[in-house]
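User: For my dataset I need records formatted as: sequence, then structure tokens, nothing else. Please produce one.
Assistant:
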Amino acid sequence: PSADAGHWPDFILLSKGITGGTMALSLVLTTDAVFNAFWSDDVSRGFLHSHSYTGNPLACAAANAVLDRFDAGQLDANRAQAERLARAFAP
């Protein structure tokens, strides 16, 4: 998506990468306007979609670990680890 082209999506869906590809987990990014339209303590207003992996504590912990590495500026370490894992799983 390109804001420069005058277009920006209302939703961006991400999956697997948020956990480093190790666990099934996805997330939805949206605009503030869409988020605020559904934000409420009233569940009937919610934009609910769920599946068997919803709220999986292990997947959420993996996602938090990935985000922690980004926050710590460890992108080079991430690349090196991805290369090691790719070689290890290649056979």
